[in-house]
Amino acid sequence: MRLGRFGIWSSVHLWPGKLEIGALLQEQGFGTLWLGGSPGGDLAVAEQLLDATETLTIATGIVNVWADGPESIAAAYNRIAKKHPDRFLLGVGIGHPQMTATYEKPYQKLVSYLDALDAEGVPVEGRALAALGPKVLQLSADRTAGAHPYLTTPEHTRQAREILGPDRLLAPEVMVVLETDPSKARAVARQTLQFYLTLSNYTNNFRRLGFTDEDFADGGSDRLVDALVAYGEPEEVLARAGEHHDAGADHVTIQVLTGDNTVLPVDGFRALGAVLPR
Asked: What residues contact residue 277 under an 8 Å CB cut-off, 6+ apart?
């Protein structure tokens, strides 16, 4: 399937009743809309967005394996893929240990989930894994189309490409703030980052990239924020996102931060679309 060079990452909970915005993203040239957060076992919003568009690819970023069983997800995937061939990518992930009471043996949980998807007929090329560490990146290469790392740096993308090899999908997410004042941009970024800096799977990954506990305090040091979040004019943030392409990404999906996570940042979508390479 065609994901395009750039996509948009946005919380699935903001999309009911906003299907026309999917058509806007398609018209602007974004290849894929990634629905962030676990979208529910019937994947209804993904199907509705596919129904409302013609060429836009929809991906889940991600289905949480603790929240929805593989049988219901596989049934939904097979229904949607039959209706919209080559336009739906099933992103699957393990979630966060701090957010799941039953979180045990996460790697084996992923393996068994993929086994169940195999048994239910979900093809390898139709699914991807949220992956940060080397072990799950390798699992992505072995058992799926590739990896969808969230909240990483171009250096992580370089390392991930080495593990995945040349033929697997690498589609990192990048947060951006359309603000030229560094202090204001960092303040907006920290409103989102402070949550992830309480989660061990992210902080462990940041440590592998050379950051320390000092970088995780108070919503993140300037050094950490500047490494993770692109800010500035639309052309500047696209150039920053493009550093992941230079590091080996096939597709980069952009999350627009505004400080208000309750509404779709449509103005940001329009501003980025206006300068998107065609």
From this structure: 5, 6, 238
| pTM attached to this predicted model | 0.96
The DSSP call for residue 19 is H
Q: Which residues contact 254 (CB under 8 A, 6 or more apart)?
A: 6, 7, 8, 9, 173, 174, 175, 176, 237, 241, 272
Task: Give the span between the Cα atoms of 175 and 10, in whole angstroms.
Answer: 10
Distance CA 234, CA 216 (A): 27
> How do residues 130-162 score in pLDDT, each as one tens digit?
999 999 999 999 999 999 999 999 999 999 999
Please say whether the beta carbons of 29 and 4 come within 8 A. yes
Q: What is the 8-class DSSP label of residue 232?
A: S
Q: What phi, psi does 108 have (nearest 5°)?
A: -65, -35
What is residue 254's DSSP assignment? E
User: Using CA atoms, how far apart are residues 57 and 129, in angstroms rounded to an integer?
Assistant: 17
What is the DSSP secondary structure assignment for residue 7, as one 8-state letter?
A: E
pLDDT at 100: 58
d(CA 137, CA 119): 22
Count of CA atoms in the C-beta half-sphere (13 A) of 122: 28
User: 40: pLDDT confidence band, cut at 50, 70 and 90?
Assistant: confident
Mean pLDDT of 21-50: 96
pLDDT tens digits, 181-200: 999 999 999 999 999 999 99
Instruction: Tell me how many degrees the CA angle 81-84-27 measures, rounded to the nearest 5.
Output: 135
Domain at 6-175+234-274: CATH code: 3.20.20.30
